[in-house]
């Protein structure tokens, strides 16, 4: 079979990562009789240096026309002084939105043989852990209204977090379905004691939980979740959370 793969090498270690991935895919193609056609596109700081924008339209069109996309990394000290809409990281938000990539799966697994490499104590690591973090990727504070304005104490900056029921439902279903394929435990992480967006998040997740009675569902505040991850990571199976908390 033949596949078109877009290569977004980006900046820093990005080219090294993508080049290594290509080598692996070329070997895979030989073994299984596939044919991969790789097409590089600019993204991030290198794209800004060449075109004046971190995400050229050609890159977006190329990715949409491809069967798969391999992304390296973007950003670096050379572009830290650029305005927000020109920074390399802006390209990540743009490509996620353009491709409709609302789910970010972040597995974390520690094998017993690698216990000594973990910064966690042996009595915490135990026989290792295996968890999956499901992060919402195209909503929340990273995509909300932002800017500067005059406030009570002079100039102030603001970023806005907003989530719709639809956005929460679709990432929630991904998380529940992932839990169904694993150990059937799901923890939703939010800040519902303070944030209105988190209260809607929790309300929506509770309603979804009724559709998956086989899954043991719990809620946890994000500050407690951060502590529990280093205190006892083995208690988690699947974690679902918002864009910022998942980052």
Describe it.
- This protein has 247 residues and is an alpha/beta fold.
- The chain has 2 domains: 101 residues; 146 residues, Isopropylmalate Dehydrogenase (3-Layer(aba) Sandwich), CATH 3.40.718.10.
- Helix content is 38%, strand content 26%.
- It is built from 9 helices and 10 strands.
- The strands form 3 sheets. A 5-stranded mixed sheet has the order 4-5-10-8-9. A 3-stranded parallel sheet has the order 2-1-3, sandwiched between helices. It has a two-stranded antiparallel sheet with strand order 6-7.
- Strand 8, helix 7 and strand 9 form a beta-alpha-beta unit.
- Helix 6 packs across helix 7.
- The relative contact order is 0.12.
- The model has no long low-confidence stretch (mean pLDDT 96).
Descriptive labels:
247 residues, Isopropylmalate Dehydrogenase, five-stranded mixed beta sheet, three-stranded parallel beta sheet, 10 strands, 38% helix, 26% strand
In short:
This protein folds into two domains: 1-101; 102-247, 3-Layer(aba) Sandwich (Isopropylmalate Dehydrogenase).
Shape: globular
Classified by CATH, the class of the largest domain is Alpha Beta
CATH homologous superfamily of the largest domain - what is it? Isopropylmalate Dehydrogenase
Question: Biggest sheet: strands side by side, in what order?
Answer: 4-5-10-8-9
Q: Structural class of the secondary structure composition?
A: alpha/beta
User: Termini distance?
Assistant: 36 Å
Describe the main β-sheet briefly.
5 strands, mixed
Question: Helicity level, as a percent range?
Answer: 25-40%
């Amino acid at each position: 079979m033949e596949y078109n793969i877009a290569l977004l090498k980006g900046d820093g270690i990005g080219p090294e990562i993508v080049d290594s991935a290509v080598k692996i895919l070329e070997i895979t193609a030989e073994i299984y009789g596939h044919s991969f056609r790789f097409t590089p596109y600019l993204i991030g700081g290198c794209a800004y240096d060449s075109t004046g924008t971190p995400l050229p339209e050609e890159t977006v069109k190329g990715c949409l026309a491809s069967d798969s996309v391999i992304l390296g990394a973007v950003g670096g000290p050379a572009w830290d002084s650029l305005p927000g809409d020109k920074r390399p990281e802006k390209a990540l938000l743009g490509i996620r939105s353009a491709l409709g990539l609302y789910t970010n799966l972040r597995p974390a697994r520690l094998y017993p043989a690698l216990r000594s490499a973990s910064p966690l104590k042996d009595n915490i690591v135990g026989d290792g852990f295996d968890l999956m973090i499901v992060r919402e990727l195209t909503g929340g504070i990273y995509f909300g209204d932002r800017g500067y304005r005059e406030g009570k104490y002079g100039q102030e900056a603001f970023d806005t977090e907003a989530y719709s029921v639809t956005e929460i439902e679709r990432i929630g279903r991904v998380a529940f379905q992932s839990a169904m394929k694993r150990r059937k435990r799901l923890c939703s992480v939010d800040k519902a004691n303070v944030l209105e967006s988190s209260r809607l998040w929790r309300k929506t997740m509770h309603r979804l939980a009724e559709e998956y009675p086989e899954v043991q569902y719990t809620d946890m505040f994000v500050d407690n979740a951060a502590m529990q991850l280093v205190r006892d990571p083995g208690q988690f199976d699947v974690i679902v959370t918002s864009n910022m908390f998942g980052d």
